[in-house]
What does this fold into?
Amino acid sequence: MDANKGKGEQGMQIPGGQMDRPVNFHIMESLLPKVVKRRVHALKRLQVQCANIEAKFYEEVHELERKYAALYQPLFDKRRDIVTGTVEPTDEECEWHSDRDEEEELAEEVKEKAAIEDAKKEEATPEEDPKGIPEFWLTIFKSVDMLSDMLQEHDEPILKHLKDIQVKFSEPGQPMSFTLEFHFEPNGYFNNAVLTKVYKMKSEPDASDPFSFEGPEIIDCEGCQIDWHKGKDVTVKTIKKKQKHKGRGTVRTVTKQVPNDSFFNFFNPVKVSPDGEMDEDSEFTLATDFEIGHFFRERIVPRAVLYFTGEALEDDESFEEEELEEGDEEEQDEEGDDDDDEGDFDPKKEQPQPAECKQQ
It folds into this structure.
């Protein structure tokens, strides 16, 4: 069960942020008779109690997620072993009946022709026997827009060594959180076997705005120190700069390190300000980070093979297209209304029926 469902798709709430509400709700309330307003205040107190119960509900959902994570883990461990080539699946485990129409309709002669071509290629080139599923996670990173936007060319050789990504939930009695673990095989870039990113969460209404509560939200995140090998840190780059001595007029060249775009900056996130005051750029960066963390947890890790094959991407695109079509339909209806207002009304002509509303 996804305690963050809806929030993950629409973007995480900024820490300290409040839900937008009409600016005139105070005016509306002030117009009520005093005796009615008194009863509305009683309803608000009940609403706060509902929010507190809902917060407890989501705490139990988190415990349920933690319980079921232990049941998923053996399957994810086997996925890792197959991806890395540690285990070779049996013929029975490899059986898969595709329901794709284009595969079912493929003519037998085309299959035979393809087999002949494959046989010729095998004779012409040495037989390859790749280990596991090469570049499994890198392929996913390059396929998903949210991740490919972070990916730089110099990151790709490093991510070829990524063996697995796991999600770990906080232990019972501990503050609500989840940790992303990126497991790497030994490589020539850093010494860490595992890189971690912890996302801290809360499931309680804000005392200053309890009605904005919509379930657990990520409130902060914490990365880890990467132990880079000398000269291999892709998060910085070395630049040369000329300096002129004011007195002697001599010129010297100095080198300095400056930040460099890289996926691995993901492990050095912007920190939430203790006082909650952050500039707009920092707020946007933090909100994006929260969204990416949630996407790893809810989509990438549980459905990795479908992102590798592109099937999950097709599902995402279909959903976006459906939303777009609905928006277009609404826009066309509005334009049609304008035309009706501007034109002369003729009761003898059949009037257009309103478009059917699509249920979300």
